[in-house]
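Moderator note: this is an archived Q&A kept for reference. The question asked for a predicted structure of one protein chain; the sequence and the answer are reproduced below.
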Amino acid sequence: MTPFDALSTPLPRRLREGLDRIGAAMRSERWSAAEGAALTPTQLDALAFVAGRGDKGVRLRAVADHLAVSQPTATDSVAALVRKALVTKTPDPEDARAVLLRATAAGREASFAAQTEDSSIERALATLPPPEQEELLRLVIKTIRALQEAKAIAPQRLCVDCRHFRPFLHEDAELPHHCALVDAAFGGRHLRLDCPEQEEAPQAQRDAAWTEFLRAAAAPPGG
């Protein structure tokens, strides 16, 4: 053990500190985007989540779980979005006691405008070489999945958890994965964190795909 090992804080803690600083910049941008849309950041996040679920709609509980807020907080945010005609509430045909939330055309437009605003975070990420961007995406996916498996965050619509995902099915190093839904090869740079077509795979299939994804991703070129 070197003196630095003895004196340094644990590496995961320093990584968390770094992510906290990046998160602070992201929160600042989120406030600016929300103010531009005359919303609070929580309302904007709720709108983005509902808009991302398309015509199928989503229940209030899912909004609260995704945002990691209490149901009363989610209720207040959704109520504000309904008053602003950005979200509609309709009865859930599968449960008479529940309602489905859907973004209106104005809501989808507001969500898209907020997400496509100029971002200092994206500009910073763009300074990384493409291979490093792809590797960072892979590490982000691993971290999200670990949090998801620990039930620290709500289930995400990740490619790696989808019943249509076939990791490293092709020998093409640029396009090694396969999506059975569209029957097409794709690369690591295309992996999605929130795919609207995602269908969660059974646990055994998810575990097997994840094991293969990690094994092949860690293998040396040509190995």
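Archived answer notes: The mean pLDDT is 91.
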